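Q: For a teaching session next week I want to show students how multiple molecules come together into a single three-dimensional assembly. I've collected the sequence lines for a complex. Could you give me the predicted structure tokens for the whole thing so I can convert them for display?
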Amino acid sequence: MKMKHSGTMKAVLADDLTKSMEFVRVYAADITNKKETSRLVKQLGEIFPLTRLPHMKRVRCLKENEEKHLQIILCCVDQEEDLSSSPTLNEIFQKAPGFDQTGLGNLFSTRVARNQPKTRAQFEEAQSHWPTSFHEDLELTKLLNGTYFTKTEQERINLHMQMAVELADQGKQSGEVPIGVVIVNSDSSEVVASCYDLRNTASNPLYHAVMLCVDLVARSQGGGAWEIQDTPGFWWRKPHEASNRLADLSSDTSLGSQPDNLQNDVGQPTLVRDVTESQSGQNNLKRKFNELDDSSYLCTNLDLYVTQEPCSMCAMALVHSRIHHVFYGVTHPDGALGSRYKIHCQPGLNHHFQVFRGVLEEKCRNLYSEIT
Amino acid sequence: MTKLLFLLPFQAKAALLQGEVPVGCLLVYDGQIIGKGKNGVNFTKNATRHAEMLAIEEALDWCKNRNVAYKEVFARTDLYVNVEPCIMCAGALRISGLRRVVYGCSNERFGGCGSILDVASDQRTTDSQPVLQCVPGIFAETSVQLLKEFYRGQNPNAPNPKVKKAHDIQDIPLPSLEGVQMKDPT
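A: Of course. Below is the structure for the complete assembly, covering every listed component.
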């Protein structure tokens, strides 16, 4: 069942999805004879094609006192044109002397949307001026109205952020910048790696929690670059666990087995995503193989939880790592996933991902309350 | 300068020979190379192992071994790299407090010194790190050649990087490299 968020979690969307519409001015006129409408649309399309406004409907219908009343867009108003000097129909059609003005009445200028609306809110704003075409993106609508995640998913998100908060607190005790990170498999909710910041204690300005956790994921795949000493709270799935599981699966002949045997058994908080019962065992097995294959390339199909908005370095590291979703608690003025930049939806980059802010916001804010 | 001319493309070429994106870099402090790096993404399965990151870490070790504060050293250290640093690396260079980056061709796909974003010179609110000076256009042709070679093998559809003009290089004094101690390339 889908329901609205009870908390403050919000999707961080590209600016062109959240801003208000921009408008341009056009000349329009009443249609005094409805029978002329289709001819007017056709002829105006030839002499004044709306090439810069392909999303606009040429004709609108107003209802006044149960009576329908049509209006039609003639042409765009030139930017240099002085609006105080209202032209006549004859002046507008000066350049098209053969044009038959029959059916056109009162001339006026009005504002219409410059671009096609992308969200329902933008559509409604545009529509209140003049009708426009709109193709609703259902996923985007869910992101905007807070129904993208189910209640169960929302609870899991909070649980993972709770882990990150505890890690941040652990780091804080040892004199670190309190930032905790947890990286989780998007499908199985299995924790793949977790850690906290080490920039102070290791005297290494690059040891941001996000960078460390990305390297722990690499380590879980048999790679990794940093030799982090055994630090309490630092965890990564050991490489052999994944391969063992793959071996288990290939020898698994009971095709109707439950998916639970995929989950790890090392005491990590594991949250099993519901699998619809109608799914056949064969499909389950196939899905399990795919899951393991997918998760073995960088951070593909992995979600990251971090207590504070990542900086430019960390945000771009997540682009390079092909992260799936990012959840963070509090914003940071220099943050690069919503505050200073929106690197996750930056035009020109080869990977984009969804970002959500405000997860366990109060708890995260408390971590930083003593820091000025 | 001639030694740098030789070493930088060598680093990049070494990365290429190991199947990595051909990016190599050097950190130069007071006429000495204190860090060098070449791309190591595929080897470590970590997409953040860019040449610049490796060089910064080597330079941090250099400071640690000599018991000097990295912040003081880095404030007078310049990075030489054959391609404009990406957004992540530009961020890392800022965080580390390096003085200047001298680079070859621009990075139209990921560049953080102006091509995609200008992380190198944005005004931070919470730290006092100075803006990173950027000098484009050194070894640009060699860099473009190496990248072409890489993408020819890997991704035939990738666009060729554009080359920025070296418009203001003459105005900025480059560090003297006389008597540079060369480490054995490994």
